[in-house]
Automatic annotation (TrEMBL):
GO terms for molecular function: peroxiredoxin activity. Residues 23-94 form the Carboxymuconolactone decarboxylase-like domain. This is Carboxymuconolactone decarboxylase family protein. SUPFAM superfamilies: AhpD-like. NCBIfam families: ahpD_dom.
């Protein structure tokens, strides 16, 4: 599989990615645990069928110390016993935020209240932003048919 264009080598795309990356960096500095951030990104990427982002974030999570068992179970987190209640709340928010078009009401009040139980206002802003940002990355990569498998942890700094 070849990408439709060299998005990472295109100077104009670089300008766009610079701004998206800046937003992602700000959201990542929120105090939400790194493991939770990666789980949120992985789950949204799985839902959106973004192989590139799924590859990237599972490798980054592994490099940050995440276990293979938990990574294997992200897609079935509701049935898995290896996630904390706070992580479950973040994963629910990620799923509902990613599936906005599938649900007339978007994110339910219950999902929001579940997340608000474990995360303060700044962390909720970060989680909501991370979901939006990873969905943007997913769309860029899926539309461009960016192949998965070659990412190296920390490759993009």
């Amino acid at each position: 599989m070849e990408p439709r264009l060299d998005f990472f080598g295109n100077p104009f795309a670089g300008k766009i990615l610079k701004h998206i990356n800046s937003a992602a960096r700000a959201a990542s500095e929120s105090g939400v645990p790194t493991a939770t951030q990666e789980l949120v990104k992985i789950r949204a990427s799985q839902i959106n069928g973004c192989g590139f982002c799924t590859d990237m974030h599972t490798k980054d999570a592994t490099a940050a110390g995440e276990t293979q068992q938990r990574l294997n179970l992200v897609a079935t987190w509701r049935e898995a016993t290896v996630f904390t209640e706070a992580e479950r709340a973040a994963l629910e928010l990620s799923e509902q935020g990613t599936r906005i078009a599938d649900a007339a009401g978007g994110v339910t009040d219950e999902a929001w209240a579940g997340a608000a139980k474990y995360y303060d206002e700044d962390q909720l802003v970060a989680l909501l932003s991370l979901v939006a940002i990873i969905n943007a990355y997913n769309r860029i990569n899926v539309i461009n048919q960016q192949p998965a498998g070659g990412y190296r942890p920390g490759q993009f700094g």
